[in-house]
Design brief:
Blueprint: H1 6-9, H2 18-43, H3 48-84
Helix pairs in contact: 2-3
């Protein structure tokens, strides 16, 4: 994980702050999980209850990725404003 950021520590050693890194990491990990759900749903063919569970969880993770992307845009926008100040 990135260790410093320009705003909080003033060193500027890393190009992104911890929060931005964390959000990007979550988006990446959730996206990998979406691929896994596709395999799990295929494996669950014939087991309707399991397949539905995997589908529901996949949809929740898709929504989480959408929310994280929107929030990332806001965080990056705030960074740009604070760096300009």
């Amino acid at each position: 994980m990135a260790n410093t950021n320009v705003k909080s520590e003033g060193t500027g050693r890393f190009p992104i702050d911890n929060l931005t890194y964390d959000i990007i990491t979550l988006i990446y990990e959730k996206s990998k999980g979406l691929e896994a759900y596709d395999k799990y749903m295929k494996d669950a063919q014939g087991q309707q209850e399991c397949a539905q569970l995997f589908q529901r969880l996949r949809q929740q993770d898709e929504e989480a990725v959408r929310e994280l992307r929107q929030h990332l845009q806001k965080v990056i926008g705030r960074e740009d404003v604070s760096r300009a100040a």
